[in-house]
C-alpha cells in the first residue's frame, strides 16, 4: 500500500481571501502510485498524475473552504490523507 504525505505551504489551516496556498501531495510505493488531489465536497479532481509528488497552487476564494484529499493508488492498494482549510471572507 502506498505511503501518502499531504502538506500545505504556508503550513496553516486558516487563510484570508486572496492568499496563495500550495498543496503538496506525495506518495511512495512499489510500483509508484498514481496520486490524485481532490476536494471532498465535490470530488472534483484538481489534478491526477502518476508520479511521486504533485503540487497544486490556489489563490484562495471563499468557496475554497473545505476538505482536500490527497490519495495514492497502485496495484498494492490505496491510501489517503485529508486536510481541512477555512478561508475568511470579509
Automatic annotation (TrEMBL):
PROSITE patterns: IG_LIKE (PS50835). Gene3D superfamilies: Immunoglobulins (2.60.40.10). It comes from the Eukaryota. Residues 2-86 form the Ig-like domain. InterPro entries: Ig-like_dom, Ig-like_dom_sf, Ig-like_fold. Transmembrane segments: none annotated. This is Ig-like domain-containing protein. It comes from Elysia crispata (lettuce slug).
